[in-house]
Design a protein that fits this description.
This protein is an alpha+beta fold. The protein has 15 helices and 20 strands. The radius of gyration is 26 Å and the shape is globular.
Length: 568
């Protein structure tokens, strides 16, 4: 009797966490986002949880599929220069809306709704969280009920910021007409229950807790969604959410499962659910300092000088940084430390697939012998027999820093061992993340100051187009005391050919040509030692095995195709 009581209490506690019953309902899809949504208006909160919760209801003109390819959603086609939708001078883009779309209240979806949405976000007093998606927009015009023309202030080689992807879905003008500017925050009813064109409608919303949806009877695809209801529940933590899907089967989908790969794999072994992963552009990498971090240099420590007089004493030597890269077993790091959420990579720009270079794949095979031979051939020898090689009299002693994180410290330990096998001594430093990624100009421990030889962290592009991201390594982005240590080129890497490629991309509108330029820039970065890529990092979620049709997506909402989900 005591065991039964304990079991009952445990089940009730789980039900309280998930907000669902202790048995699966075939007509309801139960989604766990352990960070709860506080609003269903993504323009007032750019958090992933709000964007995802809203994506079941309101939609953009175009979505990205799991490969980062644009897919027409509420329009007939994606405008390009070739089909006449983008002007030859790259200053306008024209969208032709489908004529079979209606709002969930049965009213017509028109170009006026699209124009209104742009004006809503661009209102100077609105505080729109996704305003950057409208950079360069001069005007929006409803040419007719099904045609929208956007004019930019100048040439826009990649004009797919507004209304593309889940950051900028369309709001119904009739519902939000009185919510412009400062009034936007006061429109609680609209922000908590937007009318949409998506597969579901909001039935009930309890902020920071749970959203309950019902099927949209006016959804454009017959037979979709297959579920009558959806529940989007917040609260708890990643491990509890994973357990609810993978071990107990009490939920259908769990998001953002940042837990130990071994623990997650053991949960999946219970046979109730499946772990799914999607990859965008995040890469864990080693940044290589191209300047001298010697403390004896005082105010010139780690400072780039145009005449090259303050270069690193040995990390700009190709044989040395290449040997360091060759000594690393990226597959061990990815498989043992990241599990399903990591893939070994040799690129700093690993996706979308059209932008991924195949020219650097030899780094995927660790070769300690070849690394040692490379250093021997370059004359980088251990002249005094202490096990440490020297270059021009300077011992290869490397200071290697990163943020405090169990996975990162394990990565450091592995790399230190591998580098010791090629005659490089490594000092490991780990710094509290708030300090490492902070902007305190007085701190010597920030990643931007880069007062060590090597540092490790992850970042990636915010969208599918890499122009802004690749601009991080332009010469003008080199961090220095003159800029308050601001700037994204923390390696202090200088390459005139790279800057020229960036300039060329800023004038190129054809996607395939932009991809070619991006690949060339990626190859320059990794083939000249600006950084050493390690692991392509993905987003990890899980679904119950009874739910079919899930297409995990890192370029758009994870729930982007929820209308196609079914239960077997």
């Amino acid at each position: 009797m005591k065991k039964f009581t304990v079991l009952l209490i445990a089940l009730l506690a789980l039900a309280s966490f998930t907000g669902i019953g202790v048995a699966q309902d075939g007509d309801t899809v139960n989604i766990l986002f352990w960070q709860a949504a506080s609003s269903l208006n993504p323009y007032l909160s750019g958090g992933t949880k709000e964007l995802e919760a809203a994506s079941l209801v309101i939609e953009p003109l175009v979505r990205y599929d799991p490969d980062g390819v644009m897919v027409p959603w509420l329009v007939n086609e994606v405008p390009t220069v070739a089909n006449g939708g983008v002007s030859e001078d790259l200053t306008t883009i024209t969208w032709n809306l489908r004529d079979d779309i209606v709002w969930s209240d049965g009213s017509a979806f028109t170009a006026h709704d699209v124009v209104f949405t742009g004006e809503y976000c661009m209102h100077p007093e609105g505080g729109c969280s996704t305003l950057s998606q409208f950079d360069g927009v001069e005007s929006l015009e409803a040419v007719d009920d099904h045609t929208v023309k956007i004019t930019f202030t100048g040439p826009k080689p990649f004009p797919y910021g507004p209304f593309v992807g889940y950051f900028t879905p369309i709001l119904q003008k009739a519902q939000f007409a009185n919510c412009m500017g400062v009034a936007s925050q006061e429109c609680t009813e609209q922000n908590f229950a937007p009318i949409g064109t998506g597969p579901f409608m909001v039935e009930d919303f309890r902020p920071n807790d749970v959203v309950t949806y019902v099927r949209n009877p006016n959804y454009r695809v017959e037979g979709q969604p297959s579920f009558d209801r959806a529940v989007f529940k917040g609260g708890g933590d990643a491990e509890s959410a994973a357990r609810a899907v993978l071990e107990t089967g009490e939920a259908d989908y769990a998001w953002n499962l940042q837990i130990s790969p071994a623990v997650l794999s053991a949960m999946e072994g219970a046979g109730q659910g499946t772990v799914v992963v999607a990859f965008a552009t995040n890469v864990e990498r080693l940044m290589v300092n191209h300047t001298n971090p010697d403390p004896a240099l005082g105010e010139n420590r780690s400072v780039w000088m145009a005449d090259g007089s303050n270069g690193h004493p040995f990390l700009q030597v190709d044989a040395i940084w290449m040997a360091m890269s060759k000594a690393i077993d990226r597959n061990v790091i990815a498989e043992q430390l990241y599990g399903a959420g990591g893939i070994a990579t040799c690129n700093i720009l690993p996706g979308p697939p059209i932008y991924a270079s195949t020219n650097n794949d030899d780094c995927l095979v660790q070769d300690i012998d070849a690394a040692n031979a490379m250093l021997d051939e370059a004359g980088v020898m251990d002249s005094d027999g202490d096990g440490i090689r020297e270059y021009m009299g300077t011992p290869l002693h490397v200071s290697y820093q990163t943020s405090t994180n169990a996975v990162r410290q394990s990565t450091q330990a592995l790399i230190k061992q591998w580098w010791s096998e090629i005659g490089i001594e490594t000092e490991l430093r780990n710094i509290d993340a708030a300090v490492f990624f902070g902007g305190d100009v007085a701190s010597p421990d920030t990643y931007a100051k880069f007062y060590t030889d090597i540092e490790m962290y992850t970042n990636g592009s915010n969208g599918t187009d890499p122009e802004t991201y690749m601009g991080n390594w332009r010469t003008t982005e080199i961090t220095s005391p003159a800029t308050g240590w601001l700037g994204s080129n923390v390696s202090r890497w200088y390459n005139e050919d790279y800057d020229a490629l960036l300039d060329q991309m800023s004038q190129t509108g054809v996607l395939e040509e932009r991809a070619s330029l991006a690949i060339q820039m990626n190859d320059l970065l990794v083939q000249t030692g600006a950084m050493i890529p390690l692991v392509y990092r993905g987003s990890v979620s899980a679904h119950h095995n009874s739910v079919n049709g899930i297409a995990m997506n890192a370029w758009d909402a994870e729930l982007w195709n929820v209308a196609e989900w079914t239960r077997s």
